[in-house]
């Protein structure tokens, strides 16, 4: 059964189709993601751009076929996210390195580069019939402790990956969130400026 729910973006300009389709579902199918597909998803992150090609992105990953490892990662999430993320077949946590590998100097683009690699990962996943929901709601210090993340590396976002599942198995408010309308977006004039801060480019 395919539970894919389309919520196309009401974009004002014609976008690349996968970007129009992307949204963050709450209902995931526990159906496993095969290893090659999952490796391909992270391969996309690998080929993202980064400052000085430092590649300051790292991912911890847990799949539900290893129940203990999956529970360990699930236990790093906040309760509100556990409620829906527990059905996903794959969880990951993106970690940024905060210094350049080549010289140890602070890398103020580390978070930027990790986020960009996650965006690549997301679009690649979608091209393979998978969906992605990122989460700030997790415990970074717990991740550091459980996985032995070294100093200078910061766990930034958790990620659920998988096919969409049956929203009726979720608590009611989450079924509503999953089935509800897309959250809106501010218009270009509020964030693309030209000439001077605040002057709309479009
Ligand atoms: C860094 C980041 C952190 C997020 N944290 C959470 C979270 O903890 N829980 C959650 O349900 N959604 C979380 N989201 C999903 C956002 O709420 C969602 O992307 C936003 O509302 C826009 O909706 P859309 O992705 O469906 O377009 C997060 C997204 C990002 C990128």
Question: Would you give an account of this structure?
Answer:
The protein starts with 16 loop residues before the first helix and ends in a 23-residue tail after the last helix. The protein is α+β, with helices and mostly antiparallel strands. The protein has one domain (17-168): NADH Oxidase (3-Layer(aba) Sandwich). A 4-stranded antiparallel beta sheet has the order 1-2-4-3, sandwiched between helices. The chain is built from 7 helices and 4 strands. The protein has helices at residues 17-21, 35-46, 67-74, 79-85, 110-127, 140-147, 172-179; strands spanning 57-63, 90-97, 131-135, 153-162. 33% of the residues lie in helices and 15% in strands. The site of flavin mononucleotide has 10 residues, from strand 3.
């Amino acid at each position: 059964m395919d539970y894919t729910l389309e919520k196309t973006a009401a974009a004002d300009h014609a976008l690349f189709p996968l970007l129009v389709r992307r949204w963050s579902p709450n209902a995931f199918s526990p159906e496993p993601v095969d290893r090659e597909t999952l490796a391909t998803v992270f391969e996309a992150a690998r080929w993202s751009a980064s400052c000085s090609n430092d590649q300051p992105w790292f991912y911890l990953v847990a799949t539900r076929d290893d129940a203990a490892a999956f529970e360990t990662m699930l236990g790093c999430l906040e309760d509100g996210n556990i409620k829906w993320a527990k059905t996903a077949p794959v969880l990951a946590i993106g970690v940024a390195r905060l210094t350049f590998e080549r010289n140890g100097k602070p890398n103020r683009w580390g978070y930027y580069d990790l986020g960009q690699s996650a965006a690549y990962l997301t679009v690649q996943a979608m091209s393979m019939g998978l969906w992605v929901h990122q989460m700030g709601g997790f415990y970074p210090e717990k991740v550091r402790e459980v996985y032995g993340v070294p100093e200078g590396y910061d766990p930034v976002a958790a990620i659920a990956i998988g096919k969409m599942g049956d929203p009726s198995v979720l608590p009611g408010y989450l079924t509503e969130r999953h089935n509800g309308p897309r959250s809106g977006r501010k218009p270009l004039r509020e964030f693309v400026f030209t000439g001077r801060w605040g002057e709309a480019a479009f």
